[in-house]
Design a protein that fits this description.
single chain; 703 residues; alpha/beta; Rossmann fold
Length: 703
C-alpha cells in the first residue's frame, strides 16, 4: 500500500515507515523507506517516535496498520502511548476484528478508535462487528479491501513450464507457515484426489513465520513432512521453505489450477494470500472465515468447512471435473477483484486523508499499443488487438497528449511517438486534404469502415492535433513545419462543418494558430465566429426553462461544446460566448455530479430532455472532456469551485464512481474501457488511454 500511495503521489510527497521490532536486540536490513525503528516493548520508544513526528513539519498524517501482537504490552497496548502523544491526524487500519474480545482487548481497541481520525477495516462483516462492539466507531469507520498487485491475466499452462510442472495439475498454498494455515487438511485430502488425478502436485510455498520459528522452531513443518511420508505423498507435495520475491510468487500462483486457503480460524477477518490468489486470476477453495464468506462465490471457487479433509477432496474433484468451468472461474476471479488493486486501495486511503491523488503519468501503455505505424485502436485486456487496426481519432489525440508532455519534460521517446502519430495523420490525408479515419493492420490499407461512417469529427480532431503541434515551441521545427503543411492542405479545402462537436474542435484548433498564421488570421477568425454562432443558435433552438443545452439530449464528449464557446469567447473577446459557455457548463455539471461524485452520461442510450438519464455504459472520454472544460472555465474565472469539481471528476478514473473501482491500471499505465452496471470492461484500448492521459496532464496543470 505504501508503494502504491507513493506511486500515486509521485515525487511531490514522501511516504516513510516506522518499523516495530520484537526486541531492542533485533537488527533487520530494512528498505530505504523505513525511517524509524522502535522496540515494541519500549513505551519510551513509542513516545519518542510521536514527538519526532510532531516536530516534523513535512509529516501531514499517520497511517497505522494495527495488529495486536506487533506493538508490545498486553494486547498491544503500548501503541496507545504513541497515539496519546501524536498530534498529527491518525488513520488506523484494524486487521484483526474479533466478535468476542477480552475485556482488555476491548479497552485497548476502544481507545485506539477514540484517538484516531479515521478507522479502516477490510470487510463489511468487520465493519458490522466493530460498530456493534465499539459504538464510538460509527461515524469514522470505512471499508477498504486488502490490496492486490496488478498482474496480467493468463492461463496456467505457460507458467507451469517455467516452474517445471508442465505435466501436472497444481494446487498451492503460500504465506508464512504456521499451524493456523490448515495445510495438513489439504494433505489428508490428497489420496482421494490422486486416485482420479494422479498428476496432482500440492505446492506449500513460504518459510515458517518468524515468531513461530522463534518460539517453537520448525515443529509444524516437520509434522507436515511426516504426514506426507506416512501417506506416501512424496511425489505429490513440494515444500518451498523460503520467502518468495513477488515475481517468483506470481509465477507459482499463475501456474496454479486451484489455490487452497484453509485457515482454521473462523474469526480471521482477512487473508492477504487469498486476495493475492484471486487477484492473479485463480480459482480457490477456502474454509469459511469472514473474508472468504464475502468474496468466494460459486463462480470463482468453493467454500468448505474448517478442518474437513473430505469436503476439501470433494471440492477439488468437483472443480477439476469441468475444464471449461475451471477456466471461467479463473477469468471471473480476475475480473471480480479489480476493485482490490493496490492503486485503488491507495486512492481510497489518500481520499480519507484529504488528498487528491493524481498518479505520476506513465506512457508505458501508450508505447505498448504503438507500433512503427501508429496507435492500435483496441486491446485485448492490456495487449494490442491488431484485428481492428488503427484510427485517425486515436493517433491525433495521442499526438496531442505527447505534445503536452513535452512541455513538462522533453524526451526522445515522446519525440519518437509524436513522429509516428504525425506521419499517421499524413497517411490518412488525401490530395484534396480530406482524411480517412480507419486503417487496417494488414497492408496498412484504408478500411471499408471509412465508407460506412461520417468522418467529420475525425477530420476536426486531426486539425486540433496539427494545431497543437504547430503551436508547440518545445517541438522541433521539422515537426512543426510538417504539421503546418498538412494543416494548410486541409484548411484551404475544408468543407462546411455540420456537426456541433466538429465545430468545437475546429474552434480549438483555429484559436491555437491565430498568431502563428498571420496571413490566415482574418479567415480563421471568421471560421471561429461562424462556428461559435452556430453553437449559440443550437443552444437557442434547444434550450427551455429546465434544459440549457445545445441539443435536446446529452450524448458523448459533452464538455467539448461548452469548452468550444469558452475558447471562442477568449479568442474573439466576446463576452456572450463566454457567458453561455459557463452557463451550459453549469447545466452539464448539474446533470453529471451528485454528492461529490461524477457520473458521465451512459452511452447505452442518450439522455433526452424530459426523459430519464442513462447511467451505463460509462466511458473515459466523457470525464476527460469535462475536465478539459472545467480547466478552461477555471483559467477564465479563477473560480476554485471548478478545480474542486475537476478533482471529483478525475476521481472517476480512480474509483470514485458507481462501482467504486479504479479504471486506471497503475501497473500498465493503461485505462480500462468503461463501466457497466456490474463490472469494469477490462480491455485497455486507445481511446480510454488517451482520455485518461489528457485528464491526468490537465490535473497536473491545476496543481
Amino acid at each position: 500500500m505504501l508503494n502504491s500511495c507513493q506511486r500515486f503521489l509521485g515525487s511531490s510527497t514522501l511516504c516513510k515507515v516506522a518499523g516495530f521490532n520484537l526486541t531492542s536486540l533485533d537488527t533487520h536490513k530494512y528498505p530505504d523507506e523505513v525511517a524509524w525503528e522502535v522496540d515494541q516493548n519500549s513505551r519510551e520508544g513509542h513516545e519518542d517516535l510521536a514527538k519526532e513526528i510532531n516536530a516534523d513539519n513535512n509529516v501531514s498524517a499517520v497511517i497505522l496498520q494495527h495488529e495486536y501482537g506487533i506493538f508490545g504490552g498486553q494486547d498491544g497496548e503500548n501503541i496507545l502511548t504513541f497515539m496519546r502523544v501524536c498530534k498529527k491526524p491518525i488513520l488506523v487500519t484494524l486487521h484483526t476484528v474479533l466478535p468476542s474480545p477480552s475485556d482488555k482487548m476491548r479497552e485497548v481497541t476502544s481507545e485506539i478508535i477514540e484517538l484516531s481520525k479515521t478507522v479502516i477495516v477490510l470487510t463489511t462483516r468487520s465493519k458490522e462487528l466493530v460498530e456493534s462492539i465499539y459504538p464510538n466507531s460509527v461515524t469514522k469507520i470505512f471499508v477498504i479491501p486488502h490490496g492486490i498487485h496488478p498482474v496480467n491475466f493468463s492461463t496456467p499452462k505457460a507458467h507451469k513450464v517455467k516452474v517445471g510442472l508442465k505435466k501436472n495439475l497444481v494446487l498451492s498454498t503460500f504465506g508464512l507457515l504456521s499451524s493456523g494455515k490448515g495445510v495438513e487438511y489439504a494433505i489428508k485430502a490428497l489420496p482421494k484426489i490422486i486416485k482420479k488425478y494422479p498428476s496432482i502436485v500440492y505446492l506449500i510455498l513460504g518459510q515458517t513465520h518468524p515468531v513461530v520459528l522463534r518460539n517453537e522452531g520448525e515443529k509444524y513443518r516437520i509434522s507436515l513432512a511426516r504426514l506426507v511420508t506416512k501417506l506416501g505423498l512424496e511425489k505429490h507435495v513440494k515444500f518451498y521453505d523460503q520467502y518468495l520475491r513477488l515475481p517468483e510468487l506470481f509465477e507459482f500462483l499463475k501456474s496454479t489450477d486451484i489455490y487452497m486457503s484453509l485457515s482454521i480460524n473462523p474469526n480471521q477477518a482477512v487473508s492477504g494470500t487469498l486476495s493475492y490468489a484471486l487477484g492473479s486470476g485463480r480459482a480457490v477453495i477456502s474454509t469459511e472465515f469472514a473474508q472468504a464468506k464475502e468474496i468466494v462465490t460459486p463462480e470463482i471457487g468453493s467454500l468448505v468447512p474448517i478442518k474437513d479433509s473430505k469436503a476439501i477432496a470433494n471440492a477439488v474433484l468437483h472443480i477439476l471435473s469441468d475444464t471449461k468451468r475451471l477456466n471461467r472461474m479463473h477469468l471471473h476471479a480476475y475480473e471480480s477483484t479489480r476493485y482490490m488493486l493496490w492503486s485503488n486501495v491507495a486512492e481510497k486511503y489518500l481520499n480519507l486523508l484529504g488528498r487528491t491523488a493524481v498518479p505520476t503519468i506513465s506512457i508505458a501503455h501508450l508505447e505498448t499499443l504503438t507500433d512503427k505505424f501508429g496507435l492500435f485502436q483496441f486491446a485485448s485486456l492490456s495487449e494490442p488487438n491488431t484485428q481492428f487496426g488503427y484510427t485517425l481519432d486515436d493517433n491525433a489525440r495521442a499526438a496531442i497528449v505527447c505534445g503536452w508532455l513535452t512541455k513538462q519534460s522533453h524526451t526522445k521517446e515522446l519525440e519518437r511517438l509524436i513522429g509516428i502519430y504525425l506521419e499517421f495523420i499524413k497517411k490518412c490525408q488525401d490530395e484534396e486534404g480530406r482524411f480517412i479515419n480507419y486503417i487496417a493492420y494488414k497492408n496498412y490499407a484504408p478500411s471499408s469502415q471509412n465508407k460506412l461512417e461520417d468522418l467529420e469529427d475525425a477530420q476536426a480532431r486531426a486539425l486540433w492535433a496539427l494545431s497543437e503541434i504547430m503551436s508547440n515551441t518545445k517541438l522541433s521545427s521539422e515537426y512543426r513545419a510538417k504539421a503546418k503543411e498538412i494543416f494548410l492542405i486541409t484548411y484551404k479545402n475544408l468543407p462546411t462543418l455540420t456537426h456541433l462537436r466538429s465545430m468545437a474542435y475546429a474552434i480549438k484548433s483555429f484559436a491555437l494558430v491565430l498568431e502563428i498564421l498571420p496571413e490566415e488570421k482574418e479567415q480563421l477568425t471568421k471560421h471561429i465566429k461562424l462556428y461559435a454562432d452556430t453553437l449559440m443558435l443550437a443552444l437557442k433552438s434547444n434550450a427551455d426553462k429546465s434544459w440549457h443545452w445545445f441539443e435536446n439530449h446529452l450524448s458523448y464528449n459533452n464538455g467539448l461544446l461548452s469548452e468550444g464557446l469558452l475558447v471562442a469567447g477568449s479568442a474573439l473577446r466576446n463576452a456572450q460566448y463566454k457567458k453561455e459557455g459557463l452557463e451550459t457548463l453549469q447545466f452539464l455539471i448539474g446533470k453529471t455530479f451528485s454528492e461529490n461524485t461524477y457520473m458521465p452520461i451512459g452511452q447505452s442510450s442518450w439522455y433526452k430532455n424530459y426523459d430519464k438519464r442513462s447511467k451505463y455504459d460509462q466511458q473515459p472520454e466523457d470525464p476527460a472532456s469535462m475536465i478539459l472544460a472545467l480547466a478552461r472555465a477555471f483559467a477564465y474565472t479563477h473560480n476554485q469551485e471548478y478545480k474542486v469539481l475537476a478533482e471529483q471528476c478525475f476521481g472517476w478514473f480512480l474509483g470514485k464512481n458507481s462501482l467504486n473501482i479504479s479504471l486506471y491500471d497503475a501497473e500498465t499505465g493503461g485505462c480500462y474501457d468503461g463501466l457497466h452496471p456490474d463490472r469494469v470492461n477490462l480491455n485497455q484500448g486507445a481511446e480510454s488511454l488517451v482520455s485518461y492521459l489528457m485528464a491526468n496532464v490537465t490535473m497536473a496543470q491545476f496543481n
